[in-house]
Amino acid sequence: MTRDFHDSSGNVFADLGFKEESEQELLKAQLIVQIYKLLSESGLTQTEAAKRLGTTQPQVSALMRCKPVSVSVGRLMEFLTILGQDVEVTVKPAAHGNTEQGSGRLSVVVRSEPQTL
């Protein structure tokens, strides 16, 4: 039996064929991981966390299970600020001056470990 292996692009969503939404989905996943870490370290119940975040307990439950949720990137960034994190958005020209549609990229950079609440 032979197995084919392929190098990852670094984005599991793109590797799985979700080309159109891959950057957005990876960005959301990275933000959700940070929210998960903060909530895990906080000791808050899901109900308490939902109240603090201004959302529902089922939504917090989905976040804590890293399940896809219908929450925008903007709302996830708002959750992080509510949890005491600074969130920066940097807009700059795409690498190599490439200005074709879709040539830019989205990314999350975590500068330090999240602080507990």
TrEMBL record:
One of its GO terms (molecular function) is DNA binding. It comes from the Bacteria. Residues 12-92 form the HigA2-like helix-turn-helix domain. Signal peptide: none annotated. Residues 94-117 are annotated as: Disordered. InterPro entries: Cro/C1-type_HTH, HigA2-like_HTH, Lambda_DNA-bd_dom_sf. This is XRE family transcriptional regulator. It comes from Blastochloris sulfoviridis. The lineage of its organism: Bacteria, Pseudomonadati, Pseudomonadota, Alphaproteobacteria, Hyphomicrobiales.
